[in-house]
Amino acid sequence: MDLKTCSKCGKIHERGYKCYKGRIYTRTDENKLRSTYQWTKKAKQIKNDAMGLCEVCKAQGVYTYDGLEVHHITKLKDNPNGLLDDSNLIALCVYHHKQADAGDLDADYLRKLAKER
After folding, report:
1. Measured on CA atoms in the order 54, 57, 63, 64, is the torsion positive or negative?
2. Which of 15, 61, 68, 111 is deepest in the core (most CB within 10 A)?
3. For 36, phi and psi rounded to 5 degrees?
4. pLDDT tens figures, 23-42
């Protein structure tokens, strides 16, 4: 076994081991858009318009307040201009947000719910 001292963390690792200590992550264009004041303000407005409820749960007759997030129905990488578009945004609980990101929730259904808001 060939060992070496890591220049990043100071520990001893096997040669070829990738140490991620102090790794600098590059921000994507989508993440840069999500860190703006306008996005923060719009996300708060969408949550307030949805009365703090997951809109999919509410349509099913369940009231979920916990873990509310704002989802872009059409992804930002596909349409960066949809960042602040009310018809492209919907308030979802963590569970439904994961389903929407995976494509398990129909985008037209989500747009319908957003329009009803």
Report:
1. negative
2. 68
3. -90, 160
4. 666 667 777 777 788 889 99
**Farthest-apart Cα atoms in the chain, separation:** 63
H-type helices in the chain, by residue range? 29-34, 37-49, 55-59, 94-102, 107-116
**At 89, phi and psi to the nearest 5?**
-120, 140
Per the structure block, which two tokens stand in for 105? 């929730």
In the predicted model, is pLDDT for residue 15 greater than 90?
Answer: no
pTM of the predicted protein model: 0.70
* Cα end-to-end distance, the chain, whole Å: 62
Q: How far apart are CA 115 and CA 60, in angstroms?
A: 16
What is residue 26's predicted lDDT score, i.e. its pLDDT?
Answer: 64
